[in-house]
Amino acid sequence: MAGTDRLIEGYAQALFAIVEAEGDLDAVEDQLYRFAKAIEARGDLREALTDPSLPADRKKGIVHDLLQGKASDSAISLLGFLIEQGRAKDLPKIIEALADVAARRRNRAVAEVRSAVPLGADQRKRLAEALGTATGKEIELKVLVDESLVGGIMARVGDQVYDGTIKRRLELAREQLAKAR
User: Fold this and answer.
1) Does an H or E element contain 113, and which?
2) pLDDT of 130-143, one tens digit each?
3) Other CB atoms closer than 10 Å to residue 59's CB: what's the count?
4) Which of 53, 84, 91, 172 is the most exposed place for a label (fewest CB within 10 A)?
5) Domain 1-106 sits in CATH 1.10.520.20
């Protein structure tokens, strides 16, 4: 494992230990995961959090303003800790590694699911069962709403991608029509 990978894994292990000790692993892990995905999706947020000329207190203030009332104090504090440590650029990787650590401890695999609409509890349960059957693993879902999908679901479990989105079906139909001409 490369030095950077070990560093990321070390932070992930430390965050896991803290969150597990506080007893709110599922909620805090989910909140951190969603924030990490927001950083990846929003260039302006990523730039602000990684700007070397912006003091750590200001970056922590941005996180606090964005997450106040939407995430627990624990999640906000952990993000602040990572920012103070100069790890803002590694936040998505650290938090993804945290999700992997938590899943391994639960003997599960993480499935990142993108859906055009929020999924209900029954839908989540059926999806986790279907992905579990397809992969042979117990699945822990991380569901993100992505309106650009139009409809359907895309799931990633490790290197496996399951794309059942309307967008993908339309692409396949276009390809079939092009071949038929």
Assistant:
1) strand 109-115
2) 998 888 888 888 88
3) 20
4) 53
5) yes
